[in-house]
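Example protein was shown:

_____
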Amino acid sequence: MELREVERVLQQLDAHDVRYWVLGGWGVDALLGHQTREHRDLDLAVDATGWDTCLERATELGYESETDWLPIRLELVSPHGWLDLHPVRFSESGDGVQAGPDATTYDYPKEHLTTGALGERVVPCVSAAWQLRVHTGYEPRPQDVQDLAVLTSLVDETTPSRHQATGNA
């Protein structure tokens, strides 16, 4: 999926006030501020209150349902790429929760909802620390290994060193 297609999708969602957060490979790139690799799809955590509008906008852009694992996720495909959409319900406090398999859930704590950049666009995304945390429990694919290395470096950059934490020089 090309960056211009990502921008086209996000522009359409923004124009219709759909709240979303970029995840996965594009989410890693957003945190870094530039594209690091090719991407098959755009992963989005979508506020469930805007779910229907999101699907309407995606359909207008030529996307069709391909894999329906709702309430966990829905994959859409077009000649321009794939969208991997995850409906997330938010509490009044701002924390989100997504359904998972076998009655599990995935949390989106509000303190881990942040911003990054794709091209010239500032985009909402999920923090490096949280993306790193949720990339567990499965055998990583080659692209996951690359993403994990980037996420680890980003988390390491924001974590004070031992000397900084203790005030020693």
Notes: The first strand starts at residue 20 and ends at 23. The CA atoms of residues 132 and 149 lie 9 Å apart.
